[in-house]
Specification:
By secondary structure, the chain is α/β, with parallel strands linked by helices. The protein has helices spanning 16-27, 84-94, and strands at residues 9-13, 30-34, 37-44, 50-55, 75-80, 97-102, 114-118, 124-130. Strands 1-4-3-2 form a four-stranded mixed sheet.
Length: 141
């Protein structure tokens, strides 16, 4: 029999309350302490996705750009293609820092469909357009 498990992606931050609030607002989610772990804040989205934020006083943000031929873990936030520009404006207004745009698809106005940011603690995330909308299981790559 397999033991029941739950996964939570946890980000380190010198200011976890600030980072949890950033992601809660960006994702339309709630943030609060984990029931059995006072050191962990959980950001829970409407679809049940969970992101954890833990205090790490000596946190050093990942480098950008990453070293050649390496990939860094990052969050991929999926939005309907028609909402990409609005999602970008929301992220920047909340404190995200744009770091790169990638040609992840084709738009008639020549704008990219994958946009990379650093959150307030320096973690990488992208906002990527999907044609079906995020709830229909579009591209998760």
């Amino acid at each position: 029999m397999t033991v029941s498990k739950t996964t939570v992606l946890v980000l380190d931050s010198a200011e976890p309350e600030l980072l949890a609030r950033f992601y809660a607002e960006l994702l339309g989610a709630t943030a609060g302490p984990a029931p059995d772990d006072g050191e962990l804040l959980l950001v829970t989205g409407p679809a049940g996705a969970v992101l954890g934020v833990r205090r790490a006083p000596d946190h050093v943000p990942p480098s950008w750009p990453p070293p050649e031929d390496s990939r860094q873990a990052h969050l991929r936030i999926l939005v309907a293609a028609s909402c990409l520009d609005e999602a970008e404006r929301e992220a920047v207004a909340l404190g995200a820092r744009p770091v790169a745009a990638e040609d992840g698809g084709h738009r008639p106005d020549s704008r990219t469909t994958v946009r990379r940011y650093a959150d307030p603690a320096g973690h990488a995330f992208v906002i990527a357009a999907v044609h079906d909308g995020p709830a229909t299981g579009g591209s998760a790559g």
